Amino acid sequence: MSQRQLKLNAFLMTAGHHVAAWRHPQARADGGIQFAHFKQIAQTAERAKFDAVFFADSAAVWGAGAEQEAQSRSAQADHFEPITLLSALSAVTDHIGLIATVTTTYNEPYHLARKFASLDHLSGGRAGWNLVTSANAAEAFNFSREAHLAHADRYNRAEEFIDVVIGLWDSWDDDAFVRDKQSGRFFKPDAVHRLDHQGKHFSVRGPLNVARPVQGYPVIVQAGSSEPGKELAARTAEVIFTAQQTLADAQAFYRDVKGRLARYGRTPDQLKILPGVFPVVGRTREEAQEKYQALQDLIHPAVGLALLSGMLGGADLSGYPLDGPLPDLPESNGGKSRQHLLVELARRDKLTIRELYLRIAGARGHLTLVGSAVEVADQLQAWFENDAADGFNVMPPTLPGGLDDFIELVLPILRERGLFRTEYEGNTLRESLGLARPANRYTHKVVA
Amino acid sequence: MSQRQLKLNAFLMTAGHHVAAWRHPQARADGGIQFAHFKQIAQTAERAKFDAVFFADSAAVWGAGAEQEAQSRSAQADHFEPITLLSALSAVTDHIGLIATVTTTYNEPYHLARKFASLDHLSGGRAGWNLVTSANAAEAFNFSREAHLAHADRYNRAEEFIDVVIGLWDSWDDDAFVRDKQSGRFFKPDAVHRLDHQGKHFSVRGPLNVARPVQGYPVIVQAGSSEPGKELAARTAEVIFTAQQTLADAQAFYRDVKGRLARYGRTPDQLKILPGVFPVVGRTREEAQEKYQALQDLIHPAVGLALLSGMLGGADLSGYPLDGPLPDLPESNGGKSRQHLLVELARRDKLTIRELYLRIAGARGHLTLVGSAVEVADQLQAWFENDAADGFNVMPPTLPGGLDDFIELVLPILRERGLFRTEYEGNTLRESLGLARPANRYTHKVVA
């Protein structure tokens, strides 16, 4: 294959990404907690040759800071934990990648390295870890803290966390386990490496009690777009999931991050940049607009406001008129890049609070495309061919219907244009993404 | 069904329980890390109507304190993490219970409550949690500690841990999620309960972001047989996995623990006591003895000694002759009851160090039965009918062969005697075990 092709993940979420998705007639309202729902969707996505399914996560109930009137109208209070769900999905799929978000803020690197190594073996090399820091204050209260770590400390911890995790994945040489029944030697004594990490946040001896992952490491995904987030990604990420509103912003981000790779001895193709996209697709533009409007009409104002408030780091908007402008807000300790993006969006398009929550009710700050299949395909192609994206994290408005629409209407056009695969390139997520299998630090010295 | 019947778990471990199992011609040497291996075994156990598959765990590589000569001859260095493995198995089985061991010493109750709730939903109500405290010093070093907590502190933490976990499982009323598309109400606002736990070890606000488990709670299993272990079990356990060497000891343990239940307002049938049993079964006693001897002959002395040393809490036996007696050992900070059991066993049977490690090389202190199918069935029946056991945690010497032997040779005899089910009683692990679904503390007040 000579032509560069799109990488596409199916970002799955309960009954769909739109905040009112669960109320839609075609959405499965109890989807978040029904294995049959995700099994069907993952198998559908695999038939369509998606690179991976992708799951976000938070170790707290959604909207814990919101008024209960809003919280009780959201489908986010009840859903599977991603590692368990993806492990189950590994048993009913064969090719599709399995990417789970897990925070570095409230976990231990040994547990995390072990679970992802285990998932990688269970799936024959299809695991990916979306490394995040916790921007949700409600999580702190579930882990014996009064407040979560400051933004800089979270990244500091994340930097050390990932070094420990990758070190643990290198515990064993790829050919360590000889299992020679005759001699009784199970592994080569010189093929195991103790990490003996001593750092500011962690002391971890190792080795891991799982063989080196099938992929060497599970694929490392990151979502941070703040300054420390971009720097961490440039050093360690292989996929970036980012929220970009315009082609120009996406191009600037793409150039910025890819430009940072060289100082870590990396080449641009070692990091795939996948903006999120929320596609509402119709056979015509009008049909798409009607679909979108039908979802928008289902949003309760309390839910819209709570969603916005949460994404602004817990800002209290209750005293401001819905049809007035977004007030100036103090900087919070939440996720920086998302707050910045929303404030910019409101300013740029002169949106009221209500208009702003309606604008993000589907895509939560990611690119929203409402149009005919050709229009949606054109946009994806424009970003892909103009140095704004290596592919996309596709966020279906409803599930399973919204994903079916994208597969049935948009994918055939992308394939016709040679922009998306018709068969998997191999068996592992790395092979789908075109990422090399990393060498073990202990057995393959890098030649400078 | 009027007759009381045996409860049987299949305790699975890499290539089998015998320390040299992986070297046996009929064992799958790489079984610990092959999903196909466990899928086949779990489906076999389900066809045989076992109550559950059961997995032990340690968050450290086996034998970290042992000399590498021993460690590199053990199959325990490379195996799946149990939560991920059982999640995957949930997708390829329908009735069999899924019990995973997870330590309370190096975990957070919110993560644990969430993962087991998720597994219970994934499996339609088949999850069980074997609650342990970490007796393995090597684990501490993987979690930023210089040494693990003292025995009393570990139990203190475990006591608080389980209260938090059960509290989190009660976060939602059973009928909380109404998902009314028309009104837009996803859950009943008064059906969610914040835990607001403030304790010595943990502060956890809650609620959990998963609906109440299908079983109310996953089944609580415990293995501690020390004084605080028995007391914790009497208060909270529904199944006890215990190591007992003789009928008399097992009866004393059974009487002791069941006798403690009343002071927690519980009845004897609310706690099932399942001693471990390591069955080497033949068509004749001679065939069984040959099978056993074949396994014993595969034990490398370094492996036997390391196994024994590890089970004695890391005791250094290197200076003592293999064919001399077990020396007096200082009390360690490891698992108390197992150390005590081994010292007693050596004294009672006047065993040398070598004889002692040979004695525990299969069952690690659990009951070893080597005999014809009728002899093994007779023993199980005798324990079952004489207040020593409600069933057994069956530890196959090799996998898959050792489990097949038990199923093909012993189960038909137990069934003939009416001692084991021919069909599952229901769909959940609680229904198999004959345990009631616990009420939610917030919605059903206990009437004193």
Automatic annotation (TrEMBL), chains A, B:
InterPro entries documented for this protein: Diverse_substr_monoxygenases, Luciferase-like_dom, Luciferase-like_sf, NTA_MOA
Keyword Oxidoreductase in record: yes
Source organism phylogeny: Bacteria, Pseudomonadati, Pseudomonadota, Betaproteobacteria, Neisseriales
Name of the protein in question: Monooxygenase
Claim: Cell inner membrane is one of the keywords in the record: no
Assigned keywords, A-Z: Flavoprotein, FMN, Monooxygenase, Oxidoreductase
GO MF terms, alphabetically ordered: monooxygenase activity
Residue span(s) of domain Luciferase-like: 18-385
PANTHER family, per database record: ALKANESULFONATE MONOOXYGENASE-RELATED (PTHR30011), C2H2 FINGER DOMAIN TRANSCRIPTION FACTOR (EUROFUNG)-RELATED (PTHR30011:SF16)
